[in-house]
Amino acid sequence: MAIETQWGERLGAVIEARSTAALAGEPRAIDGVGRERIVYAPIGGVLKALCDIGDPVGADETIARVGDTAIAAPIGGTLRGILRNGITVETGDKLFEVDPRAAHHAMFTDIGQRPAMIAKGVARAIEQIHPHRASVSPTVAVPKS
Amino acid sequence: MSWDQIAPHLPAVLGMLAGAMSAAWLGGGWLRRASDTLLSQLILVLLAVLGGVLIAEGLFAVEPTRLVGAGLLPTVLVAVTCGVAVGLVSSLLGVAGGELILPVFILLFGVDMKVAGSMSILMGLPTIAVGLLRHFGTGAVLREGPVWRMTILPLGTSSILGAGLGAILLGVVPGQVLKIRLGLILIWSAWGVFRHLPQTAPAATAPPGLHARVVAHDPEWGLTTLNVDGRTVTVPRIDLPPGSRTSFRIDDRDVTLALAMESGSSALNTLSGRVAGIDPLADGATARVRVAIADVGEIAALVTRRSVSALHLIQGAPVFARFKADSRAMTGRSALVFGLSEAASATAHRLHRDGWRVALAADAPPKVHRRNMAFANVWWEGSAVLAGTTCTRVTADVMLPGAYPSASVPFLPFAPDAAFGLLPWKSRSMHGWPSDLSRCRCGATRPLPSAAVPAMSLAKPAIWRSKRSGANGSGR
């Protein structure tokens, strides 16, 4: 049993047979800005976060350092997420994300749509495994042959 | 209109222009930081005030008077102040501000009505331009293509049509009447804004279970006696020592209602209360009767409408709610969610809200960047709030039976097996636990063929391991 986690119609679906969609998920665009709003660690090291979640940031502004390497924001907007200051990262780890919208339109708190759908799917799946009520099997009339 | 007419008022015009342009610029910047609620409230007040001003202008003929002294300094000071107010209104509401500029010129500076009209247009253009530039700069709206297509172009085109129509109408309908109508429209739209102001959202809480304390176990019959605020409730045996707290919920289909405390029923539990409400269901035959049990809470019973009538149940009527000692009444379904990612946090949040006893566990600092959209900060800060639900880090000593369930979701800073050993409900069942937990990983580093995953479905209590690799980017 698995839960589909890729954006699309089947997001959050409980899948009991066959497989979930192949991993090809692209982040859903915000204002037309997709993957490029997310910044990955170019090298490994200790992260020094210079901004906090919710801060307004400008394009090319230095947001964090990994070791001695300065990492700049790819676009301007609002800092939607950043790894905790002091965490040790590996090359390729997601470091931070810029929401291209201004702070009062940006979303950086509360449960996102995709995790909410996944949670709904998980709740549905384990409800099947551990039903709250004893399930009443419907009576099925089988014609005698 | 000639230069001679405007020249004497030049200090006033320039002063106001300076005030309005700077306020429009600052207002645009402030706009991007202010909360939506505050903005809505501000717009509400401004619309109402503007409406009032317009109606007043329509009702009373405006005579040019000069209230401000003739000196250059008072003129400029007053002009700048008024300009700031006009600029703020202009940038917030997206209007030229003529409704405000006109009365200022006519009433404060004694400008002739027609000259004032031309001057207000002169002033309105630069003010709007500055505000627009600022909005472009902050990228509030205009960068988005769809906004242009969906709202600005259609609205703009229809406004131009409307303006043409209006100009024709202007010749027919007296200006005063138009002003009063416009004022009424503004106040009406203020009312619209007011109605859409976000009401304080009800906090998302777990559906109410009844809180109880374990009194004693009855090994002979395999039952446990609970104390529910002074009343005794018997349920199938639960593995908690006497004195520990727990909670349970009663399925409304398991509850029957009676007018007398009679014996000779198989239902072990009876609580007396009063009818708090009767909600007929869509099927037309049944109704959910809510019974308020003093100091305890509400129990709902699903009964037929015929029974409601036969028992003369009305709000406030005394009634006995009886229910069986059903193991399903215990909110004993438990889940351990592994990880602090957004998906793991949302899952824990959801299950907690659905009445599951749920705990989160993780054994490494979460590499979660959208920390405020998850419970991730609990790792460092000891507690975190997500959509109204608090998650609190607990340690082995606190995690004794009785300290749970609680209003918050416990976070166990341990690996799944260790965390699972700490849970008070561990005795329930360990069989079917997947021998290799790492196989349960969902995510990208090692994508699993679905055939490998069903191992999870055997896990009891359910464990949901949600850990996503950093390199596997899926934005929200």
Question: What can you tell me about this protein's structure?
Answer:
The complex is a heterodimer of chains A (145) and B (476). Mean pLDDT of chain A is 81; it is low at 132-145. In chain A, strand 6 (62-66) and strand 7 form a beta hairpin. Chain A has a four-stranded antiparallel beta sheet with strand order 3-10-8-5, with no helix packed on it. Chain A has a single domain (2-25, 35-129), classed as OB fold (Dihydrolipoamide Acetyltransferase, E2P). Chain A has one helix and ten strands; from the N terminus they run ββββββββββα. Chain A has one helix spanning 113-129; strands at 2-3, 14-15, 38-40, 45-49, 56-57, 62-66, 69-72, 77-82, 88-89, 94-99. Chain A has 145 residues and is of the alpha+beta class. Chain A is elongated. Chain B contains 13 helices and 15 strands. In chain B, helix 2 (10-33) runs parallel beside helix 4 (72-93). In chain B, strand 10, helix 10 and strand 11 form a beta-alpha-beta unit. By secondary structure, chain B is of the alpha/beta class. The model of chain B is unreliable at 139-144, 198-208, 398-405 and 424-476 (pLDDT under 50). Chain B has three domains: 3-196, no CATH class; 210-329, OB fold (Dihydrolipoamide Acetyltransferase, E2P), CATH 2.40.50.100; 334-465, no CATH class. In chain B, the strands form three sheets. Chain B has a six-stranded mixed beta sheet with strand order 12-13-14-11-10-15, sandwiched between helices. In chain B, strands 5-9-6-7-8 form a five-stranded antiparallel beta sheet. At the A-B interface, strand 1, strand 8, strand 10 and helix 1 of A face helix 10 of B.
Principal-axes geometry of chain A comes out as: elongated
Number of helices of chain A: 1
Largest sheet of chain B: 6 strands, mixed
Order of helices and strands of chain B: HHHHHHHHEEEEEEEEHEEHEHEEEHHE
Gap between N and C termini of chain A: 37 Å
The CATH architecture of chain A would be Beta Barrel
Mean pLDDT of chain A: 81
Please give the count of helices of chain B: 13
Into which percentage range does the β-strand content of chain B fall?
A: 15-25%
Q: What is the gyration radius of chain A calculated from CA atoms? A: 22 Å
Q: Which consecutive residue ranges of chain A, at least 5 long each, have pLDDT under 50?
A: 132-145
Task: Please mark out the parts of chain B with pLDDT under 50 across 5 or more consecutive residues, or reply none.
Answer: 139-144, 198-208, 398-405, 424-476
